[in-house]
Queue: 2 jobs
Job 1
Amino acid sequence: MFPIIVSQKLLMRQGTNEVQEALDIKWAAFLQECGFFSIPIPVNADTDAFIKYLTPKGILLTGGNDIYSVSKGDRLSKKRDQFENGLIRIGLEQKIPIVGVCRGMQIIANYFQVQLKKCHDHVNTMHPISIVQDCFIHQIYGNTATVNSYHNFCINEINENIIVAAKCIDGKNTIEAIECINYKIIGIMWHPERMDPFAEQDINLFKKIYNQ
């Protein structure tokens, strides 16, 4: 088994100034199913030293906390944005594969100067997606899949750094997955760790991106 560096949600403990980090325990179980073990990385860690010491197989940017541009000035979102932007930078420099899930996909898009917009009917639901042929995830999922959804914001556009890999079949063509051109970086808006049981296609996706 190989290590995967995993980012965490930031929370303010009620009634105090204490900032806590949190990670759904299902992530460890999911990554283990994929053949990896998870190493949560603290937001105040020396990221370069952390990654140099552990030589991870990949980086995972998880959900939770809206990104700063849509969070109405939430300082925790800003702190997490800065931290995860640093992880993306290192991933690019060292050619470490990166997967972004939900908020993780949004911060990847934001890193490449893509904006978000408000979306509706994408919280606590399942819906079908259409997958673009010739993209990376098409190799695993085929033309269509049904995924979960837990987000209030979506990508508003793409640019020359990003391609659309999947869209929601909702009449609005909401972007559900992206891939970065020339980099081992993908973003998905669904949560593989929240499926019960875990979906075989999601497991295969993580195996393929982190082992390629």
Job 2
Amino acid sequence: MEIERKYLVNRESWEQIRHKAVKTSIRQGYLSTDPGRTIRIRISGDKAWLTIKGATRGISRSEFEYEIPLDEGLQLMEMVKTPLVEKNRYVIDYNNFTWEVDEFFGDNEGLLIAEVELESESDQPELPDWIGEEVTPDRRYSNLNLALNPYQKWPV
């Protein structure tokens, strides 16, 4: 079960502490775009993962993730029909919670989102000063939507 909250990030505050985070580059695409059961392929470095996610209920959803051989991941990536989501992910711990900050590129350039995974829906992590507005309920910020309806194409 995946339980997480999403927030916009205050870029100016984040830039001051970004160097403390561990950075990885990620490319991902979707083999199934049904919101009730998405299937995603993700490649980061020399590793690949196949992820299946169920429908979101509140801030929770079922998630099954499997590391697969890189060559299979590359072959599956060729089957992706959606535009790829490309981003740098920064991982940083803050007050006993692990935060992932995604800096998007390409058609999602300019978007900076933080996610925090929780043990239960009632968890209330203390928010770092670089956290902005919560966007958990706004499905526009899901990675699937960012593949299908990129940030750069949103009305201003």
